[in-house]
Structure formats: structure tokens, C-alpha cells
Amino acid sequence: MGELTLTWEIKPFNKLSLEELYRILQLRQEVFILEQACVYNDLDHKDQKSNHLMAWSGDALAAYTRLIPEGVSYPDALSIGRVVVAVEFRGKGVGEALMIRSIEAVKSLFGSRPIKISAQQHLKAFYRRLGFQQTSQPYLDAGIMHIEMRMEPQHS
Questions:
Q1: How would you write the pLDDT of the chain (156 residues) with one tens digit per residue?
Q2: Of residues 84, 94, 93, the one with CA closest to residue 36
Q3: pTM for the whole thing?
Q4: Rounded to an integer, what distance in angstroms lies between the CA atom of residue 117 and that of residue 81?
Q5: Residues of the domain holding 114
Q6: Which CATH number do you get for residue 37?
Q7: Does any domain span residue 147?
Q8: Is 2 within the bounds of a domain?
């Protein structure tokens, strides 16, 4: 198999096509609800206030994150949520590329502010490599242990 080529797009909710929205919700359902066997309210009214980062491989949605402004998930921080890589694109560096682009995009969209995430605990080392620090004790969310993590803005 050759080099993986992804096309990256960021759109606010009201600019998503119906097909794009369907693919996003389908990928989130496949991974979070079916694969991870979580029963939770995915449709939480944050999508409309967020921007959406999509990585396409042809017409397949390979990866996705939700870029959330300050005051929506956390009163004092930006956030990146619904971090998801389709099963067939895992183990190829897509997750790291997705998060690096998400961090850059959230800063570009909303300014240099702290970024907080609710991370699945088993991914702590992955997020630490990207610059996040654990800021909470582990807690159960939708049947999976999570931790809050935070990245402070870089001042030059």
C-alpha cells in the first residue's frame, strides 16, 4: 500500500453538507457507541457551536474532531472533542496528525487559550506527547475511565 493521502477540511456546523454531517455522525456512532459499547448522548448541542475537522481519504471519512470554543465545554478553556479515527486508518499515524492539526486549528480559530480535553485514560501517554498534562483524578464517563487534561498556551 502506498503513502496515505488525506484531504483535511474544517467547517462550522452551518457549512457542513448533509452528507458530511451524516458521515461524521456515522463514524462517531460506529466507534463510540458500537465498537466501544458506550451508551451516551452523542448529540449534546455542542456540534452547532463548534467547528468540525475532517480528514478524508477519497470519499471515506478517515478521522474527525470537534473544535469547541471557550465557554461551551469549559468556562475557561477551548476544547477538542469526539476525537475519532476510523478503524481501517488506525496504526498509520492518523491520530497524531489529527490531534496536531486540531491543536493548530483550535488556536487559529479561537486564539491562544488553554485547551482542555476529556481523554480516555488509556490514551494519557499519547496526549502527554502532544503537550497535555493530566489535571483530574480518573472518572467514569459512559463506562470508560477518563481524565481531564490541559494544554497551556505557548508564549514566545
A1: 457 899 999 999 999 999 999 999 999 999 998 999 888 889 999 999 999 999 999 999 999 999 999 999 999 999 999 999 999 999 999 999 999 999 999 999 999 999 999 999 999 999 999 999 999 999 999 889 999 999 999 865
A2: 84
A3: 0.94
A4: 7
A5: 7-151
A6: 3.40.630.30
A7: yes
A8: no
